[in-house]
Amino acid sequence: MEIMTDQGFRKTIKYLRAFIILSLIGMICLLILFAGILGYAKILGAPPLAVPQSTLFFADNGTLIGESNSGQKRYWVRMEEISPDLVNATISVEDKNFYHHHGFDFKRIAGAVVADIQAFAKVQGASTITQQYARNLFLEHDKTWKRKLNEAFYTIRLEMNYSKKQILEGYLNTIYYGNGAYGVEAASKYYFGKKASHLTLAEASMLAGIPKGPGIYSPFANMEKAKTRQAIILQTMVENGYITKKEAQAAAIAPLKLAGIHTAKKAKVAPYFQDAVRNALKNQLHLDDRTIALGGLKVYTTLNIKQQQAAEKQINKYVASSSEIQIGLVAMDPKTGDVKAMVGGRDYEKSPFNRAVQAIRQPGSTIKPLLYYAALEHGFTPSSTMRSEYTTFHFDDGQADYTPHNFNNKYANGEITLAQALAVSDNIFAVKTHLFLGEDTLIESAKKFGLSTKMSEVPSLALGTSGVRVIDMANAYSMFANGGKQVHPELITRVEDYNGNVIYEKEDHHERVLNAARAYVMTQMLTGIFDSKLNGYAKVTGSTVLKDITRPYAGKSGSTETDSWMIGYSPQLVTAVWAGYDVGKPIEMTAEKTYAKKVWANFMEEALKGKPVRAFKPPKDGVIGLYVNPQNGKLATRDCPVRRFTYYVKGTEPTEYCTDHLKNIHHKDKKKAEEKKVPWYKKIMPWE
């Protein structure tokens, strides 16, 4: 019996020794495994913290004008921009030992296990803030062991590579608060209509309770349960030493002013412009769609809210609500190319098609300044004359005869100057110039001015029969306004990623592509459409809006059967306006033919209200200004009834004085002199 006991004891010692050895081996394996996990986590390095966030769009003064519409509201704010009360409330209720553990609160885990066993159900959570953040960033919210192991691994990686501040900041910016609001900033704006930095203790303690169950503890879902949850959070804050009992009692009974709306929805400004900005982010900055929609970008644009509102106001005022006609408008700073206002149609909700940047329409006579700039390059001057009369052009190359017409079939039936032809929009003068220069000259000139649409090498091109975009025409006229420097339509000044890093910043470098003297001479000629001194067989084309304008402008109107245009500028702003039907239907009503001019004139006045009245400043060299008789372009004498101060490229100014009004000239001598005169162009190309 003693022997059996001794053998049993030896057997027990043997098993115990084996158990201890196996336990030690197991512990060593676990330590090796744990070390391996840590090493692997270290090798992998820091996991990325980027999360889907709303991209925000700002006007030129920093005002929020809109955001990416993904159905989720996400804004990233730094810890310094979050109310300390909200930070403390969140830590108190979610993970009071956050600053003292390394990702896992083992004491809390043990307590949760005991509670679950006692209740025979899962009644208590033990996830730390770091674990929750790992889940929000990288994993689904399923309850599988695989997900839990992945969560633990990501938790280790987060704790190894990021500070507690970075983890807490990320958690607060990713947690879901219900109603499409992700993160404290979106939640603060939705529930209380304010930034997270401005939350009171009462509001912070209410907000901190929502993530546990947004459908249960949201004040909009159940105010009674929300208040109960708030009281629990306030009590934990007292227990953790963040606030006093008195402060908790005051916060518990403090009235709460709830908002219940996403504030950015109210800030939907200039929708056509915002679409154009998104397109620029994609095609010019080469960002992908997901980054644009959910990259948390901050996009600072060129939009001027005051001028945008002025554009929309004038369109609503002058375009009849019963009319189906559409409008495209682009206003730009001619010095920088910054687009200050854009309207792509009458109603974005009905038609998001952007007529300001997408539609290609015939520009009519607004193409003439580009033609006449080329003419100045080939020796023309504001005093160059041609005969304005009913004309049929015949061609030797088999091309069909071409007979352009002036508005209302009115002609001077005599010589007119280039300056007057531009002011009254004489079509015969334009076609003659076009053919004299060669039909390819205007095409090359259009390219120089930044027009990219295809143009046909035909006689009618001088009258704007090849389509262009509104934004490109605004850009072309900007080059006249800025003295000949190349600009491009700019919509974006700066783009920051969700961390505030600048990934794009506009550079202002503008190469000169036009001769400054010729550009100024063209500008001075374009002021002629508002100058009654240039009235001739017809009134200047800007006469219908003279009563609406109070400062110097240069510009040109244009019309085809289906399109109505007005493009003009001051030294500070250039604006192009197009009106017409999407289907190319003829514009027949008289009122509809005036929309473009009326909108342009009144928009310019309102947009520039309060800004200094500036005249167009000539360049220091290269031009000379003289008084001429606007009817014949010769130097004016004191006997001329009308004298107009006109600029010329130096060296091309007229030298002959007007003799039409000299009192002592003999009638026969005058008639004889007129008979001897032969127009210069007929010496080169005698049209019939």
UniProtKB/TrEMBL annotation:
**Its GO biological process terms?**
cell wall organization; peptidoglycan biosynthetic process; proteolysis; regulation of cell shape
Reactions that this protein is recorded to catalyse: Preferential cleavage: (Ac)2-L-Lys-D-Ala-|-D-Ala. Also transpeptidation of peptidyl-alanyl moieties that are N-acyl substituents of D-alanine; [GlcNAc-(1->4)-Mur2Ac(oyl-L-Ala-gamma-D-Glu-L-Lys-D-Ala-D-Ala)](n)-di-trans,octa-cis-undecaprenyl diphosphate + beta-D-GlcNAc-(1->4)-Mur2Ac(oyl-L-Ala-gamma-D-Glu-L-Lys-D-Ala-D-Ala)-di-trans,octa-cis-undecaprenyl diphosphate = [GlcNAc-(1->4)-Mur2Ac(oyl-L-Ala-gamma-D-Glu-L-Lys-D-Ala-D-Ala)](n+1)-di-trans,octa-cis-undecaprenyl diphosphate + di-trans,octa-cis-undecaprenyl diphosphate + H(+)
UniProt GO MF annotations: penicillin binding; peptidoglycan glycosyltransferase activity; serine-type D-Ala-D-Ala carboxypeptidase activity
Record-annotated Penicillin-binding protein transpeptidase domain positions:
328-604
Keyword Transmembrane on this protein? yes
Domain Glycosyl transferase family residue range list: 62-237
State a GO cellular component annotated for this protein: plasma membrane
* The UniProt record lists the keyword Protease: yes
What the entry lists under Gene3D superfamilies is as follows: Biosynthetic peptidoglycan transglycosylase-like, DD-peptidase/beta-lactamase superfamily
Cellular location(s): Cell membrane
Family membership noted in the UniProt record: In the C-terminal section; belongs to the transpeptidase family.
Q: What is this protein called?
A: Monofunctional biosynthetic peptidoglycan transglycosylase
